[in-house]
From TrEMBL, chain A:
The keyword Translocase does not apply. SUPFAM superfamilies: Bet v1-like. The keyword Protease does not apply. Signal peptide: none annotated. Belongs to the AHA1 family. It comes from the Bacteria. It comes from Rhizobium acidisoli. It holds the Pfam family AHSA1. InterPro entries: ASHA1/2-like_C (IPR013538), START-like_dom_sf (IPR023393). This is ATPase. Residues 32-162 form the Activator of Hsp90 ATPase homologue 1/2-like C-terminal domain. Keywords: Plasmid.
UniProtKB/TrEMBL annotation, chain B:
Residues 1-95 form the HTH arsR-type domain. This is ArsR family transcriptional regulator. Signal peptide: none annotated. It comes from the Bacteria. Keywords: Plasmid. The keyword Metal-binding does not apply. Pfam families: HTH_20. PROSITE patterns: HTH_ARSR_2 (PS50987).
Length: 164, 115
């Protein structure tokens, strides 16, 4: 199930999300700009922080964003939700090839995923692939719980059903 | 970095409160499997696996069917919902992100910055 998104110049781009193989998440999307532009928006903190936390995730905002996007560099993002404690996400860049790929670790959890994002040139447009591999059950569960925020009532009903 | 950050999540589902049972759901999300093969995969006794499957079955997360001497398990409607929700939550998050990224890319193209 994907949605059509009309971009500025009218081309239709779709976000596709799928689970693959063992605990992997793959997100793909086409952008109407060459890889160098998309890469720039991904690797410069002042640009990255403008889009990484979408407005639709209400009540959460990026408090700080430090990114040293080069192989061996580190990043640290701090989020705050309505004046409560901040929560940090951090890790290091395992591999950075400008305009082509960025690979990073997610070290805030016990066993974080390894994330790889690649930028492929498709005749002046960019095919972006965001690929995340969870190392274990526990790690996947964290992701599952992370999305549990969006779980609908059915699952709450399930809870009731089970505790009955 | 993919999760919704900072949201308190105290949703606890009895059936899904156990890592093995979540693993079973995850496994069945990729294809049906017999109780025996699940027991092997999760390195448990057949009896232990049967208990887990029973809990999941009662919750409507898994349905089982006996064909000959083999009992096959597959995701029940609720199990499929868990799977679908996982996908949907990620899709919403990334769509939100990528729409914002589109706007920034348009800006960048207009500025024609190529430093």
């Amino acid at each position: 199930m994907t949605e059509q998104v009309n971009s500025a110049d009218g081309a239709q781009n779709r976000t596709s999300v799928e689970r693959r193989g063992d605990r992997e998440l793959l997100v793909t999307r086409i952008f109407n700009a060459p890889p160098s532009t998309v890469y720039k928006a991904w690797s410069r903190p002042e640009l990255f922080q403008r889009w990484w936390v979408p407005k639709s995730v209400s009540g959460v905002s990026l408090v700080s964003c430090d990114m040293d996007v080069r192989t061996g560099g580190k990043y640290r993002l701090e989020f705050g939700a309505d004046g409560s404690d901040t929560m940090a996400f951090y890790g290091k860049y395992l591999e950075v090839v400008p305009n082509e790929r960025i690979v990073w670790t997610n070290d805030e959890g016990e066993e974080g995923a390894i994330t790889t994002v690649t930028f492929e040139d498709q005749g002046g447009r960019t095919l972006l692939k965001f690929h995340e591999v969870y190392p274990s059950n526990e790690a996947l569960e964290e992701a599952l719980q992370g999305s549990a925020a969006a779980l609908p009532e059915q699952l709450e009903q399930l809870d009731e059903l089970l505790s009955a | 970095m993919v999760q919704y950050p900072g949201l308190p999540l105290d949703l606890s589902f009895a059936a899904l409160s156990d890592a093995t049972r979540r693993g079973i759901i995850d496994q069945l999300g990729r294809g049906d499997a017999s109780i025996t093969s699940l027991a092997d995969k999760f390195q448990m006794t057949l009896t232990g696996m049967k208990k887990h499957i029973q809990v999941l079955e009662r919750a409507g997360l898994v349905v089982t069917q006996k064909v000959g001497r083999v009992r096959t398990c597959k995701l029940g409607k609720r199990g499929l919902k868990v799977e679908a929700e996982w996908i949907e939550a990620h899709r919403k998050l990334f769509e939100g992100r990528f729409e914002a990224l589109d706007e920034i890319i348009s800006e960048m193209k207009q500025e024609g910055s190529d430093d």
